[in-house]
Amino acid sequence: MKLSFFLLPIVCLIALFFSAVSASLGTVVTFDDLHETGSGSYLVNSYQGLSWSNFVVLNAVLSPSVFGTNGLYYGMVSASNVAVNGIGGPAEIDSLGTSFDFLSAYLTGEYNSNLNIEVQGFSGARLLYDTTVVASATSPTLFSFDYLDINRLYFSNSGGLPAFGTPSAPQFVMDNFTFEFVPEPSSLLLTAAAALLLCPLLKRKRA
């Protein structure tokens, strides 16, 4: 009896710890599970539990044979797919019901270096976050955003200078998009509540 009395709080604490660690790591979307060519195709809705608008996924390794060597190739973090905003236009990621936290992403300019990429986070119609980052065209940069409890991300880009001898073309490359869904209700709270409920029961049983 004494052993079980002391073990339960320890088990609950371990569960809380691993729940917290799991939440902090998030889900890394590499796009590499999609079978793509060098020319690519538009992402469909409900990929990784999110809705994607105006994102094209293509094989960065094969892209030089189609588009030449540019930020599509240099922006790859995990082989071999990357996502780009179609024709340089605004792109959007929406939740399909559950809010999410946007943690980070690797961003690169496809044709322009020093590309300005504005990333806005919304909850409904309310703008909660608005950050503009500057991306290189020859290497991916990890940008941390930590946008919490949002249901829509809006990406736009502008500026920069041609990096590969081509006309100016503001367009960004994204890889290893990291996010996590916001649990409803929180699994951490449920675990903590279970621990609080069970401990008095054990005490009573022990007495």
Which features does this protein show?
five-stranded antiparallel sheet, 207 residues, Jelly Rolls, alpha+beta, seven-stranded antiparallel sheet, 14 strands, 25% helix, 4 helices
Q: Largest sheet at a glance?
A: 7 strands, antiparallel
- Return the CATH topology: Jelly Rolls
Main CATH class? Mainly Beta
Mean pLDDT: 86
CATH architecture: Sandwich
Question: What is the count of structural domains?
Answer: 1
Total number of strands: 14
Termini separation: 10 Å
Share of β-strand residues: 35-45%
pLDDT < 50 stretches: 5-23
Number of helices, counting only DSSP H or I runs of 4 residues or more: 4
How large, in whole angstroms, is the Cα Rg? 22 Å
Helix content: 25-40%
CATH homologous superfamily? Protein of unknown function DUF4465
> Globular, elongated, flat, extended or rod-shaped: what is the shape?
globular
Give an overview in words.
- By secondary structure, the chain is an alpha+beta fold.
- It has a single domain (27-183), classed as Protein of unknown function DUF4465 (Jelly Rolls, Sandwich), CATH 2.60.120.
- Helices cover 25% and strands 41% of the residues.
- Strands 1, 2, 4, 5, 7, 11 and 14 form a 7-stranded antiparallel sheet that branches. Strands 3-6-12-9-10 form a 5-stranded antiparallel sheet, with no helix packed on it. The protein has a two-stranded antiparallel sheet with strand order 8-13.
- A hairpin with a 2-residue loop joins β9 and β10 (126-135).
- α1 (2-25) runs antiparallel to α4.
- The model is unreliable at 5-23 (pLDDT under 50).
